[in-house]
Amino acid sequence: MGDIKVLEAVERYIRGEMNPDERLHFENLRKSNGEIDQLVVEHTLFLQQMNRFGEWKKFRSSLQEVHTDLTEQGKINSARLTGKAKVVYLWKRYKRVAAIAASIAGITTLTISALVWTITPKTATDELQQLKGKINSIEHTTKEQGKEINNVKNKISHTDNTITYTTGGTGFIIDTKGYLVTNYHVVEGAKNIAVQNSRGEYTARLVFADSEKDIAILKIEDESFKPYNSIPYAISRSEGKLAEPIFTLGYPRNEVVYGQGYLSSKTGYKGDTLSCQLELTANQGNSGSPILNKKGEVIGILNGRQKNAEGFSFAIQGKHIYKVLEELKKDTTYQRIKLNSRSSIAGLDFQQQVEKVEDYVYMVKVN
Questions:
Q1: Per the confidence metrics, is the pTM higher than 0.70?
Q2: Domain locations along the chain
Q3: Which CATH number fits domain 167-366: 1.10.3720.10, 3.20.20.70, 2.40.10.120, 3.65.10.10?
Q4: In terms of CB atoms within 10 Å, which end of the chain has fewer, N or C?
Q5: Is it the case that residue 236 has pLDDT exceeding 80?
Q6: Residue-level pLDDT at 248
Q7: How far is CA 22 from CA 5, 25, 101, 299, in A?
Q8: Cα distance from N-terminal residue to C-terminal residue, the chain
Q9: For residue range 141-158, what is the model confidence (pLDDT) as tens digits?
Q10: pLDDT of residue 31
Q11: SS3 for 205?
């Protein structure tokens, strides 16, 4: 979107000229793009200040008329007046910071003070008393407008910050810097993504998707997120072994749930070679859960999109994570992502392994 089109969209948004669909799209854009959000705030202040400047111009014209009238009556000496020059000087001096409401209020006060000093005669008159009353009224109005602008800014900053998440699944960490894997169908079409576990809730974004393999890679991008020191499990490059015990952790509800079973087939639904079949019951929300063996290796990603039958479920084979990552690394931004190939939880029983793995599995929430 070009700069001019962005400004046009911002003005239409501020003036309430967008239809509901356009407004919803623009508000989502503000949430995802800090620069757009800041532009809305600054442009709202700018329009408010331009309105205030128009009122100030009217007031200045009124002062000029009073000045002319007093000069004609001989009550002041026009030769000693330099008010116009001072007004121009003050405006040029402060116009670069006029985007801040407090500065506008300060400029107005300084300008009014300068004008009063230049036109006040030695002897008080009824006209000057009336003028002082007008000045006091303008100063009061300026302060009130400053408060209103601050209120507008705060209102804009806090509007629609709450996001309602409607669907979701599970994801797990594959790189200590906050990269996760989940199923592509979990985040397909998502406008906003968040991940949550006992560590907290963080915003995330989609960095790569492979719809054919049903794999997506997410990146946590939240200032409150602290990178991990290491990852306890490994990502297996080979297929799982038939009948080997496996377990999974996922979020079919708002808490992590453990499931245990075994590998019942090296192929998936209708002989799909991308997947494997598990003797494991899976529920909605388990999509994207890691499937681990006793060696502490991720051998699959639970694929809840494929139908379960009589306690069977299916998983995308873990080795395909490497293939997806190879595609992602074609973008030089992501070349430092490294999958862990050595498990530190091999030999532990499932209960001990779960304790080590739990903090690396997240609920994935989208809207």
A1: no
A2: 3-157, 167-366
A3: 2.40.10.120
A4: N
A5: yes
A6: 96
A7: 14, 5, 29, 44
A8: 24
A9: 666 766 666 666 565 555
A10: 85
A11: strand
